[in-house]
Amino acid sequence: MIRNLLCMTAPVRDGFDIPCHELGPASSQLSVALVGGLHGDEINGIFILSRLADFLTKVDAGNYPELRLAKRVLIIPAVNVLGVNQRTRTWPFDRSDINRMFPGSTGGETTQRIAYAVLEATKRAEFRIDIHTAGIDFEELPQVRLYGPSEVERETARWFGLSAIMERSLSPVFTTTLKHSWKVWPGQSFLLRVGQAGTVQLEHCQRVFRALVSFLGRAGVLVGTELAAEDEEICSFDKASGYRVFAKKAGTFVSDRQVGRWVGAGQELGYIYDSFNGNVVESVLSPVAGLLTGIRRHPLLFEGDLILRVNKKG
Ligand SMILES: [Zn+2]
Fold it and tell me: What number of other Cβ atoms are within 10 A of residue 101's Cβ?
């Protein structure tokens, strides 16, 4: 069922709604809440969640006789609905970042009211999942991000079957995020980071769609899915395992490498060309042997820009 999480009026235009999907038996407690598009230009997450909503709606309607939704699922594919329309990360009217507005309030500015409605709708779920991407210049391997996780969250993170689980300590600075506001509630929280902003990367999206179906299966929400043995190795990485390469010189950076591949120490991963005469200014080498978890996709490089990140296996 589609309902409106929030209906808002605007000064000199039609009002707008933030729609969400409520699926599974209405009588059961909310089991899984999925949130995408807190940032309007992070299209991978919006695409994944809209496709998941379509799939689960068909499951609910009985189109897949072998599958059944045993518990309730809430999906908000795009929180920043106006940002999606205008292809902006932030809220178009005042350029505020919705993911810096939590826990929000009912009487505040528009984005604070949006934050409040999202938190209210999701905070009591057993499992809460927020999907993001990297920025528009950089591509990240689809990964689970944990911030100051509990032991049980560490275990549950493996249900996605994604090859990388990145653990960070809880930021004392960014306390106004959805993820941070979820922390005080019982239940488990996860952040997925998928590819880069501004585009749909089909392979990443399909990978994460399967990850979410696997998660719902293991959580006992989607009954009847075949829970395949973990087909790829799952690695946990802490912050110290990440080795970053920054541009020593400006130029045009080009690479045909794909994220998610294991690379050797000293392996060539791309080249910086002189932007005018086309000479190779520098070959970019992997600093260590490890997993290529992130790479710059915007070719124009200034000195000091982040080019790539390789994570060393612990
Ligand atoms: Zn984001």
Answer: 26
Q: Give residue 43's identity as a one-letter amino acid code.
A: I
Write phi, then psi, for 241 (nearest 5 degrees): -80, -10
Enter the tokens of residue 178: 């959805």
pLDDT exceeds 90 at position 260: yes
Q: How far apart are CA 225 and CA 223, in angstroms?
A: 6
Average pLDDT over residues 291-305: 96
**Cis peptide before 186, with omega less than 30 degrees from 0?**
no
Residue 153, C-beta contacts closer than 8 angstroms, at least 6 positions apart? 146, 188, 189, 190
SS3 4: strand
Tokens (6 digits) for 298: 């915007």
Ligand 1 centroid–CA 196 distance in Å is 10
Distance 131 CA to ligand 1 centre (A): 7
State yes or no: pLDDT of 156 exceeds 90.
Answer: yes
Distance 203 CA to ligand 1 centre (A): 19
Dig out the tokens for 284 from the structure.
């970019």
Backbone torsions φ then ψ of 239, nearest 5 degrees:
-60, -35
- Token pair for residue 164? 């990388």
Distance 202 CA to ligand 1 centre (A): 18
Considering only CA atoms, which of 34, 233, 21 is closest in space to residue 130?
A: 34
d(CA 39, ligand 1 centre) in Å: 5
> Between β-strands 138-147 and 188-195, what pairing exists: parallel, antiparallel or unpaired?
antiparallel
Give bridge partners of residue 237 from the DSSP assignment: 166
Q: What's the rounded mean pLDDT across residues 140-145?
A: 98
CB 109 within 8 A of CB 183: no
Query: In sequence order, what are the residues at sequence separation of 6 or more whose Cβ sits closer than 8 angstroms to the Cβ of residue 252?
Result: 272, 273, 274, 275, 299, 300, 301
Please state which of the ranges 20-24, 218-222, 226-230 shows the lowest mean pLDDT.
Answer: 226-230
Beta bridge partners of 282: 272
Type of residue found at 4: N
